[in-house]
Fold this protein.
Amino acid sequence: MRPSTLRVALIQQATLWQDPAANLARARGFVAEAARAGARVAVFPELFTLGFTMAPEPFAEAIPGPTVEAVASLSREFGLYLVGSVVEAHAPHPRNAAFVTAPDGSLLAAYRKIHPFSYGEENLHYSGGTECPVFAVDGIPCGLQICYDLRFPEPFRALAARGAEVVFVPANWPARRIAAWSTLLAARAIENQLAVGGVNRVGRDALGLDYPGASALHDCFGEVIAQGAATEGLVVGDIDLTQLRAWRERFPALKDRRVEVYSALERKDKTPMNTDQS
């Protein structure tokens, strides 16, 4: 039987710029705190060992590789599911990837960011992924997205259609766009009737960008279960999965989707508009 609740710890850290060893050394304290708080899964921000670097090649590694192995060791030590993030070696460019390790230290899933952030030229330095794995945390179907992916509803909908009940979103989301972060987390939860946990870093990076935290756990109605401020630490909350499953059964909105119509509309969108008024 699947659990009726899931306690999640969002690790809202101030990432040390491009210093994997130092960030991994600090990670143990956060995971230990999450275990003391009774969390079953703990989630780090996007590229938590580096920061949102546009010079990824020197840090690229395999999955599994050193970073996955370090996080897996923490999973074994503290008996938690952990969501980490790493620059994955890949051609023509590395990939911005998130991964999940299980309490026995095994690699449970890996996700490659589908939408590199072209506004910040991430697409010039990273290759995009093409898959959205669904994995189980104590039997609870879950998925992953990364930062800018939050602006694209399609992968979230695909995860929900495949049964995902919780989606974790590691991010480096800057202060200047934080209103969009909070709004989109709630929207993705509401429209897909799932819980969303978005974890954002705090502090300032070497590029001068400020990160305000605001990590948040939203329920299937978009309501905030737990939310962080602009300080380093954990944001801990309990997802009520009984409520989520009951809502999906009582109000099965996803069954009313008309995928064939959407496909036709997209084809029409590609047809040039006739502006001839003669």
